[in-house]
Fold each of these.
Amino acid sequence: MIDLGHLALVVALGFALAGVLFLALGVRWQRRDLIRNGYYAVYAFFLGTLVASAVLLVAFLKKDFSFAYVAENSDASLSVFYRISGFWAGQQGSFLLWLLLLAIATVVIALRDLSRLERLTGAAVMVLCGVSAVFAALTVFDEGSNPFIAAAPGTTPFGLNPLLLHPGMVLHPPALFIGYVGLTVPFAFALAALFIGRADRLWVTLSQKWAVFGWLFLSLGIGLGAWWAYVVLSFGGFWAWDPVENTSLVPWLTATALLHAMTLYRTRGIFKRWALATAALTFFFVILATWTTRTGLISSVHAFGRNEVLIDILSTLLIGSALLSAGLLAWRWRLFASGAPIESVVSREFLYYLTDLMLVLFAAAIAFATVLVPLLLERTVGPETYDTFARPLGVVFLALIAVCPLLAWRKTEGAHLRRVLTLPLVTAALSVPLWLALGFQSDPWGFIGLVVCGFAFGAVLQFVLNAARRAAGPGKAWTAGLRRALLGSRTRSAAYLAHVGMVLIVAGLLGSTVYKAESTALVATKPGSEDAVLTTDDGKYAVEFVGWRTESGAQQSQRTYADFDVFTDGGSTYVGTVDPHTDIYEVSGAAVRAVILGRPFEDVFVVADEPFDSSSEAIALRVVVFPLIRWVWIGSILLCVGAVVSLWPPMRPQEALADDAAAELAARGRASEASA
Amino acid sequence: MNKKARTRLIVATGVIVVAFVVGVVYLVSQQGAYYKQVSELVSGEWDGKNVEVGGRVLDGTISRDDKGVTFTIQDLSGASDTVDVAYSGQMPNTFEAGVDVVVIGEYSAAEGRIAADELQTKCPSKYEGQGTTPTAPAAVQ
């Protein structure tokens, strides 16, 4: 079976290369028969990766520890759910999953185009085949990336690391990879448009949904990782500015810029070079993320050991794709000129421009500090540095998110500006007492940021109100148009949701990081004694040890709970019981689990610093209070729901196409009007 | 094309980009730590400086009191040099004797000790590389 898997990978590599060749010639000579042959090669490539993946999956399901990779990432005691997740628990399987997802995206695009054999799509599939070939080559030629290697005789299965035994961690890697692959598609179409010199909207129309889809899964992946870090890693936070976290955030930022540029490209014929450049940049950063994680050149808590073949292949892909994109963009620079220049700095276009510019700069700054500083200067940058520039930038983004949709296209008159800014200013003022009541005045910058959140909330309301007024028509009350404003246009409803989500996320991030309060103590495990109580440094909470419980936990582990009663108001009011615990796994070791007590405006996070059992005389207890942290999770959900709403297929496809055509006409009209 | 708007656009872009680059470069040069091996610390050159050092936690050196935890780490590149570490922040979940950690903090040559502000253990997905044959980790006792 190991040989079958390996053979399937070699076959996949061969057909991916054949696809590149057929499609390159077919696109160059405008020969549809060659493009069709290229698509047939894609099907064979897809089947090869499918067989390889199936072999590995079956090996995990059948507990076939003759596969070195299976023995390293699972053991016989694991449930089916966690055995499946062993597939992507290590480097080899991760690359195979990447390859499988790439193959799925490529084959879907090729299948849909088989009746048209369009040159642009042919060129895009060629790019996808090229990227796939690199990943296939990695699994074939690099021993550290090949999941089909036999285990040494007498190998004991290693088991999955107990920290990874959590649904968040099972879903986090595939979500990230789906995101990365989704964002590879707009890159492929952007390169294709540049190759064949087609500056109309077709490449955006064909790849925008993939971009939203990729962005959605990347958001989910980052969110799941943060949630897992918060509840499982128990370091008292959810984001540590670790290199691997950073390099997944960087493409998310440029992908956000890409989504906005694509919308403007499609509907107004502007931001064309931005759309191409951010598509290319996003792919570059996706590969940079893989490069950083897998080559081990950047010291990281995540990094694997060094590996020369891998470094060569990934570095070539990284530099090659950057040079190719930059060269093509320079070659076609004039062809992709914007249909209408920006006329005023008080216009929606200009704020879109600022948003995209800042997103790209933010991404570049994080990439610089994460990758170039350690590599070139042999220095590392800590969380406080990232926080110093990320916090003010977060507030600036929030202000841009708030004001941008309220401005008019092209130019905004002063009177209009005053009218639309009134409601946001009122909600900003109204939010002040709320923040004061929650005790957030201690940090002036955090407080300002939160007031801006209040402003942004009002701005989203005003955005809805404007749309309702327009929908109601002149002379009618805005309430008459509310229904249509909310349900009329899906992309607009999606934007409301996503923007409210972002406001909540930034408010939650500010609240939970700037105002986080942490207390530690060695707590004696003698119920009733004075030493059995931890009182938080601000005196708000008292946490008292009341007893032990032990039981068999998941994956045949032995679980010891330490129960603590939590009191507030100087120890007088009981608010709940928490049971931080230690899991001891048969094969893979011990893990401490944090427990979170949710309060209306804050989380009380309780964790032991070291594994304990019921014979421990004291527990090194840590209590962290995270204000507003739930807003981050709620906001993330809204953000993702927004993306889903905009992705939902239209009820009547003809109608959507007609809409699209109308937008194209309108964009042309504006462009000719502007050039006149 | 509107010349005035175009000029404003270019000026605004220039100001933002320059301010941003200057700000980030300044922050990075002011903060952060030098990445060093344990064996490189002995020269004394790094006394009083912020360093980031990777090392393996030596068995039997971990002691905990009210102020936090102290332990000793050994060079990862094969040298026998060691350095003491004092740390009082959040303990990573996987911390124990024998694991590889990265500590960041000010190094004092006189005390032979790093006052760590940050302590990270190598992440779970990385068991490979520290010995390729999977065996039960030392943690199961």
Amino acid sequence: MIDDTVAQRVLGTALSTGGDFAEIFAEDRRSSAAHFDDGRVEQLSSGRDRGAGIRVVRGDTTGFAHTSDLTESGLSAAATAAGAAARGGGGGVREVALTRRNPDRPSEVEILPQDVPKSAKVDLLEAADDAARSQGGAIHQVSVSYADGRRQILVANSDGLLATDDQVRTRFMVQAVATGDTGMQTGYEGPGATVGFEMYDDVDVTEVARTAARRALAMLKARPAPTGTLPVVLRKGAGGVLFHEACGHGLEADLVGKDASVFRGKVGEMVASPLVTLVDDGTYGREWGTYAIDDEGHRAQRNTLISEGALTDYMWDFLRARKEGRESSGNGRRQSYQHLPMVRMTNTYVLAGQDDPEEIIRQTAHGIYCVQLGGGQVNTTTGDFVFGMTEAYMISNGEITEPVRAANLIGNGPEVLKAIDAVGNDFDTWAGTCGKDGQGVPVSAGQPTLRVSAMTVGGTAR
Amino acid sequence: MSDTDLLGLVERVVGWVGEGEAVEAYTARSRHTEVRAYEGEVESLSSAETEGIGIRVIAGGRQGFAYAATLDEAIVAETLAEARDNATFGTVDPFAGLAAPDGVAPAEIDLWHDELADFPTADKVALAIEVERVTRAAEPRIKGVETASYDDVSSEAAVASSAGIRASTRRTVCSVYIDAMATDGEQTQTGYGYSVARRPGDLDVAKAAADAAHRATRLLGARKPPSRHLTVFFDPIVTASLLGLLSRALSGEAVLKGRSMFADREGEVVGAASLTLVDDPTNPLAYGAGRFDAEGLATRRNLLLDGGVVAGFLHNSYTGRRSGKASTGSAVRGGFKGSPGVGSRALSLAPGELSQEELLATFGEGLLVQSVTGMHSGSSAVSGDFSVGIEGLMVREGVAAEPVREATVASTLQRMLHDVAAVGADQEWLPGSAAGVTLVVGDMSLSGS
């Protein structure tokens, strides 16, 4: 994307106003999507984004500028703007020597999506629509989306780092709408992985579609969710969102550094039930949040955040780590070259425990069983967080009974982590998009079946 | 800014139209500055210009789309070729087509202020530092800020098509935003404040700071309330996001595709008589205002709910044609990266007679909701299920009383519309696509301990 010698000269320009660190992040992204809705292939679309963001750090101030012009003159103009923004004054010339670093790739892409005929992508949509509608006449609408993206990045900085990565992601999403006496209900399923078109060797799109349709149909029979506090059993997989919200964001070093986290100053302390070991692992398999290097050029790592209930560490990006005189944990990410990086999660999951998942349900007298969650939100300063249940059932006398309608659950991170009283020996993951300060990045969450002894359920039942 | 003439560019692209096809090109360019202050210093200063083009091709009743985040002419030509190729894979749809000029004249509104383009960076920095300083000084219990920022954007867009469309728009907007943290003993609470304007001279830093400090400190000591049914008073900013959720069910696309609870209900009563909802992007006070929609048709005032009755739906040219109606000038897109959908841009409820204070005094008891979380995780405009996390204050004897947190309020959108007891007089235009106003909804479920 950018020649090594050009990068060196541009970094020199960036530092010419007295900055003490400069970085070029260049990105070339190609994406394609196909959308099927209302019984027809509505549209195929393709996109191309290419450009570079340049940041200059001087003391505690960061200057940033970006450009879609990757020529030396375009990059130099952005470097000058970023340097000026960092408010330097007469720093003189600094030479930058770059060393190319080639990290081990966590996954090799077998089939680049751009090499697959568009007709093959369209075939997947039609098969999924058929499968969803075959689940019954109450399914009256189906939308299916295929998406793939290839993101080639290059990071060069004034510490001499030069690193590249080639990230390919593939996603398939089905939403079904069912209609009955109680109105309409939706069901959703959307697997995604950091792989190419070979994802479809493992993912059967007709099964994805049937799952979405079954979910919508089940919710037609749902009764209003209860109010008040109840034990909540989270099925393996989707419940990982709980940890993403309950403590993941609060363990991001940028928020901790501003005292905007209930977990500040708690390293070494017990912050969760001893049954909980939580990791954030950017190297994990072919998961949705996996990469070789982060968007600051640092290798993805497996970081243990909570070990048997004790807080072991926060997640770090380069800037926050540099301030503390330590290494980045490989969590510096950005939505695109148009954004500054910040501390972000990758694949965040709780390790499996000892309990039999069925036994966890059997030992719950009265509670909620969550099968699918639909995202959440947290106030890291207070620790209060919500997450939505999009498929859930009542548990009565240890049995899963009738479905309940969509509602949010609310809790306080430190309290909920300590209230986990059973952790299953199973495990699954869930792909989603995490938003922070207006930037979205792909992440996954995972966990075994587990139980929170009490959470507030945001329903309406009297 | 790069000096490419946007309208000239899209007209050139449309000139490349082939036989038997229709072409629409939409281009946008924006310049954005963001300053973040922390502890009296600049934490970050970003300045950036973004530009790009999105091209839609319709041939033989099939639609294809492609975009590129550059105006480089060689890549623009490749983008047209890609959109053309994409169109060959669509399903034939007799209603597929572009918007055609409909003779409606655009509103004479000017949303652009040169003052913003000429505003020196040093002054932007000073505003960000000032909003942080004033907030920290507002109250001894304000111990920190999470975010203190100044943002502005100047944007221009142009659209042209082989169906005869030719339109361009431009606008400026700037804002200051602050998230304050108040601490009292062991507990820390947060509160937001902001001011938004079309030019920097109209920003009210003192108000943003005072609001953030007030919101954060009044939540100190908040506890989880017991569960009960009660009247809920939604603060204006919360009402605005509620209207955004509701408006999805008033999109002609949702109606056509069977995803709207209001399908087949035009002319029927769906809510309280005090509910009159309008989407009017010709109102220059709205931050979503604009002379043209995303397909280049003039925007217009659309009445959606009239005294609780469904008065109409929003349409772009496709949904209008398929519904046997005309476009309501309500095509929207997520920038140049998307093809036109349908959406609201300037929603407002017809305001009532009473201020928030008077509403609390009139209704006497309930819950004042200052902020909500999870609006998109526990609620659905399709089913109508509504459940959100809240922070706020109990209302007792006509005034705001003790603060509450870690609770939810829930109902269904269908019921809430009927349970609307009053709309406040305190309408204010907010960043985004709706005006805020205090909204009083009876009989909602508060879930806590």
